Every structure is written in C-alpha cells, then in structure tokens.
Protein: D-amino acid dehydrogenase small subunit DadA
Amino acid sequence: MTCGGAFTKGGLAAFGPDSLAPIRMKVQTMAHVVIAGAGIVGVSSAIWLQRAGHEVTLVDRMDGALRTSYGNAGVLAAGAILPVPVPGLARKLPKMLLSRDEPLFLQWRYLPRLLPFLLKYLSFARADHVAHSARALSYLLSDSHAQHQSLAKGTGAERFISDEDFCFGYATEASYLADAPGRTLRRAHGYEIEALDGAAYGARDPLYSTQFAKVVCYKNSGRISDPGAYLAALLAHFQAEGGTVLAAQIDDIEVQDGIYKALITDQGPVAGDHIVLAMGAWSGKMAKKLGIKRLALESERGYHIELHNPSAMPKAPMMVAAGKFVVTPMEGRIRCAGVVEFASTEAPAQAGPLEFIKRQIAALFPELSYDHMSEWMGRRPATTDSLPLIGPTRAIGNGHVAFGHQHVGLTAGPKTGRLIADMVSNHPNNADLSAFDPARYQASS
Structure:
C-alpha cells in the first residue's frame, strides 16, 4: 500500500503539497456526471469532477441536519486507521451491550436482521485484518488536513479548517498502556505522537486540569469548526461554479444493458453519462442496482450533545478514552459526539445513547456552565470489513461508488472525491486501491 509520493501524470489524487492546489484538468470528452448524495463525500466528488471540466448534477433530499456530515465530531482524524472490530472484541461484546456505562448500544428488536452482518463484522476482528486496514486507511487519511485545504481553497469554506492536534485522554495509567498496540501501529505508519502526563496537558488546557492521568496528542490532524456550515459553504461554491443541485428523493437507478441510464427520483428521472453513488448509510439498496449484490451495509448510528455558550472552551479536540466520545470546540459551542448504536436506518433516536453522553459530560466537566443543550443523531455507513467502497463497479460500465466510510467520512471525503474524479476522468493513479475495490462485494460471475 502506497502512503505517499507524487501523483501520476494527469491525475487529481495528488499527495505532495505543490500538487494539492485546486486545479482544472482538461478531459478529452466532458461528461455529465450525476452524483447521488450530497454529504461530504458527494460534495467533494462534485467539486473535483467540476474542476476536471465535467458537468455535474448533485441529487439529494437536502435535509440538512439529518446528514451524517452535519453532526460528526468535526475532527480530521488522520490517525484513525484502526477498525472498530479488533481482537478480543467478541469477548467483551456481551458485557458492553448489557451495561448502561459502555458506549455500545443495540436496539434488540433489530438483532435478527443485524445478526448475519454482525457475525461477518466480528469475523474481521483479527490482527491480520487490523494491519490490512491500517495500511489502506493510512493512505486515505494521512494527508487529510492538506486535502481539506485544497478542496476549500478559494471558497467560503476555508475559514472553518484549522490545523490542530487530536488528543486522547486516559483516566488511568492502565487504560493508557492498554492502547499501546494502536500507538505502535500508527507510529509504524509515520504518525507523529506526543504523550504527556495529565498535569502537563492540564497546564496547556485548564479545562482538563485533573481529569486524565495521560494524554496522547496526534500531530498533523485538524478540526472543522462547524461541519454543517462547512458543507453548506462547499455546496454554495459548487453551485456558484455552475453545478446543479436537485432536491429530490432518490427511488431507483435505471440500468439498461449494463449501462447507467438515469437516477429515478420523485422529481423525475435524472439522466447522465456517469453515476457516482455516495448516499452513505442509504447506499445499500442502490448499490445492488449497480451490481454490488453481496454487500451488507448497516447503519452504525452516532449521537452528539452540544453545550451552547459554555463558560470555558477546550483548546483542541479530545477523545475521552473511557467513554469513546469526542469533545470538540465549535463556533459558540462544545460538541460531544460519539457512541455506536446498531439499529435500523429509519428508527428514531433513542434516549439511552444521549443519556450516556450526558452522564459522561457531567462527570468530565462538573464545573462547566452553559446556556442550553441540543441533541442530534446520525447514521454512519458500516461495511463488514470496516473499509469504504471507492471505485468503478464492474457490472455497470459507467457506475462508480463512494460510500461506507464509517467513522472517517469527514476526514476522508476530499481525498475520496479526488480519487473518484480521477477514475471517472480515466486518469491513472499509482496507488494500490484494492482494499477499497467494490469488486470485493460484487456477485461472482
């Protein structure tokens, strides 16, 4: 797996700092590309395709706060290269599901439908797959801050991006030592890590004066100060540059003789030369229409609580290791985001995960005051192997997919968009992208 280097001639998926400038590439034949889904992956794909000279139409329900891209933790987690299923998870699962003080939730009536996915998901909790995922994701995530800067350069979205550490706070020395294998793996992939005593970090950030025994800071990460406003600014730029946005419910994909013909919506059909499927957790049904018939895609739901006008602000994003949630400074508020809940995509938000986060906040910040609290729930698209699908579909000659990013959709969105633009434009890329190949979920011929 290639983790860096210069891009091949004519390619958009660049990795060196000079090649990250937003450029317009000439394509031999300008195509009309239809993108299903206007989250960060879809919008990034739209902008890079537009810069490559294509005509682009984005189709989405445009339901704002319901998008996962709206409510994520706002962290550019360049070092998030470990999958959720790791060795030993299966043993811990019963206790985690039965305890109200663990960050894992399940709507039990959903278990019969979830079980086949869950068994396959847990089958990847192996050391060899963790190493495989780390190699693949380090390529996709390691330069995420530069990729966001390049995507947003010259747009109203630039102001939301900052270069900050992503820190992990450990309440005990034992919990810090338990995470040592993950730090070793990240260092092996070139990540710069700083470990501090809790008191030393507390001197930097008084909000965490006594909470942690150890704090680990991952350098060269980043933060988006308002993910919803950031996405809206990127979308506005796409439209200002001539892109089309259609607010519509996507119902089906019309395919004839192995070729995409039109996206079927409640506003009528949307024809095009290429289709890019980027609907996040809602991609499963449409992916089957593009020949990806062995895919099991589940909604791994996450929640956030926001504290508005707090009496103090943290200096940088902090993963609270004990509760597996992230505390991020936002514009005028603190966002506390995390947990994993397996439930139907369409099921309403549940009280359990929200109450869990509220208890964690109260324990972490007993002296913090704020004006009011707001709540949100979103849906992460989870694949059984915890890796996204990025690339062309073999069964449909003009079909591409870009979904399944699980916890790293915001982080990986711009680079995924570059890769999609390269692929649609037939620009070569010298990186090994086989880990993301949709063919791994396509029906055997």
The first strand starts at residue 32 and ends at 36. Residues 89-126+162-219+297-383 form a domain with the D-Amino Acid Oxidase; Chain A, domain 2 fold (CATH 3.30.9.10).
